[in-house]
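Ticket 4471: requesting a sanity check on a complex prediction with 4-nitrophenyl phosphate. Repro inputs:
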Amino acid sequence: MKLLMVCLGNICRSPLAEGIMQHLADGQGLDWQVDSAGTGSWHVGEGPDRRSVRAARNHGIDISRQVCRQFRRKDFRDFDHIFVMDKYNFSDVLAMAPDEEAAAKVKLLLGDREVPDPYYDDSQFEPVFVLIELGCKEIVKQLSPDS
Ligand code: 4NP
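Returned C-alpha cells:
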C-alpha cells in the first residue's frame, strides 16, 4: 500500500509524518511505502527543516535524507491514501483531484482536527511530533490487515 503525507512546505510536518508512518509500518512488518509532498514549491529540493530532523531524531527516527517535492496530480494515481495536515492543504489538494475517486483518497491525518504549522514557533515541533504520531498510530490501526 502506498501512502502520501501532504503539508504546505514539505519541510516541517509532512516529513515527520512520512518518517513516523514508515517507522510504524516497518515495525509492524507492513509492506507500506510512505512518501510526502508539499502543496507549495518554495523548498523543492531541500532537506527537511532542522527542527523537524531534531524532533524525529529525539524519537529515534532519521528523516534527514528526505528531499522536498511538490504535490502533483499524478499522485492521485500513484497513492492509495493521501493524508493532509490542515484544512488549507485539504482544499488545495482537493482542488487538483481529477474525479471523485481521487477526491475520496484525501483525508485529514487527524480525522477531524488539524496539525498546526510549527514553522514560526520552535517550541511547537515536539508537540507536533506527538500529534502526528497519534494520527499515524490510529491510521495503522484502521488500515492494517489484522485490525
Ligand atoms: P510545513 O511548514 O507546511 O509543515 O512544511 C511550512 C514550512 C515552510 C513554509 C510554510 C509552512 N513557508 O512558507 O516557507
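Notes from triage: The chain is about 40% helix and 15% strand. Leaving this open until the requester confirms.
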